[in-house]
Amino acid sequence: MRDGVWDWYSSDFLTRLAPGGPVVAMLTPWHEDDWSHRVLERDGRVEEGGEWEVVRIPALADSDDDPLGRAPGEPLPHPMLEESDTDAALAHWNERRRQVTARDWGALYQLDPKPSEGALVDRDMLRRQRHTPPPADPVKAAVAVDPSGGGRDTAGIIGGYLGDDGRLYITDDATMIGSSDTWARSACEMAAALGAEVIVVEKNYGGDMARNVIRSAWDHLARTRDDDERFQRLAPQVKMVSAKKGKLLRAEPVAQQLIEDRVRLGANLPELEEEWASWQPTDPDSPGRIDASCYLVYAVLPVPGAEALISSPAGVPRSRTARSGAARIQRRRT
Q: In which band, very low, low, confident or very high, does the pLDDT at 244 lie, cut at 50, 70 and 90?
């Protein structure tokens, strides 16, 4: 189909173009090798001395050079809403994001098509690894955070638990664009809901600041929600980890755990699945969901060679997963 569109542009469209006539193309970029990619590869962008001026306006701004001057995370105004009501616009786009698939959201609304060829895991395998509700009781729960930083504005926040069948079940995704106070509060709320014993935080960006904001967030929630017994228990341990190797070397062992059925998805987490099914080892970006889910796996599941990948892995011996004598936490019911 892509080749057919390209041939039509060359043989039908351009042959009917008047001398000096402009060409305006409006499209949804469904594939990284679609017509727009090919024509930009051939003719170039204006800012690079080429022919094409590209106007890209995603539903939620995702760069510092947004054509409308929006900061990352700010919503696109909607013609049926007051232009000044950014809260209503943000709620609208987030609801639409919830309703459509992650692939459709990326292409239709964010203008960011995600390839699947060459990814570490494929969508069919991820669907097979989706077990809702999880068929195992929790032994140890944790939340992992990959704070925003290093040119990325998204903070990855992923939670789950080690089941009494020896598998890790990833159950929660609260990844967001927001300040450190915002993602720290979200991580604490997830930890309270899961009964997590530990919050694992990557410290490459921000260092001990991340530990402090999480502790402050928990203290604030404990004071302001004194009627919520989940926040009246001992605060989760905040464990700082540091990446020793690149993303590919960290992600490959986790992908292998998925393939070997030692890691499962315990909920419908479409955006996490989409990142795993589309991230390419050569991509320059750093998806927060993948990083956070890797840190979660290394925190609660014994993974061979983990010590060489992150500086402070916290493995749980398989003997801890036995039903007899195992410490239990209450699994959240929804």
A: low
- Decide if 330 is inside a domain: no
Query: Quick check: 239 and 314 in contact, CB under 8 A?
Result: yes
Q: How many domains does the chain have?
A: 2
pLDDT of the residue at 235: 93
Of 315, 240, 255, the closest CA to residue 290 belongs to 255
Q: DSSP 3-state assignment of 164?
A: coil
Please tell me the distance from the alpha carbon of residue 23 to that of residue 39, in angstroms, as a whole number: 12
Question: Radius of gyration (Cα) for the chain, nearest Å?
Answer: 22
**Cα–Cα distance measured from residue 252 to residue 332, given in angstroms and rounded to the nearest whole number:** 30
Q: How many CB atoms lie within 10 A of CB 168?
A: 28
157 three-class SS? strand
Q: Please tell me whether residues 189 and 303 are part of one structural domain.
A: yes
* CA 11 vs CA 26, 51, 52: distances in Å: 20, 20, 20
CA 219, chain centre distance (Å): 27
Nearest to 194 by CA among 269, 143, 136: 143
For 257-294, the pLDDT digits (tens) are: 998 899 999 998 988 998 888 887 666 566 789 999 99
pLDDT digits (tens, 9 = 90+) for 108-136: 898 888 665 567 788 888 889 999 999 99
In sequence order, the 6+-apart residues with CB closer than 8 A to the CB of 3 are none
Residues 47 and 134 in one domain: no
Please choose, from the candidates 115, 108, 114, the residue with its C-alpha nearest in 3D space to the C-alpha of residue 59. 108
Question: Which residue range forms the structural domain that includes residue 63?
Answer: 2-109
| Cα→Cα distances 193→23, 165, 325, Å | 54, 21, 23
How far is residue 70's CA from residue 90's CA, in Å, rounded to a whole number? 13
Whether the link from the prior residue into 317 is cis, omega within 30° of 0, is: no
Is the pTM higher than 0.70? The answer reads no
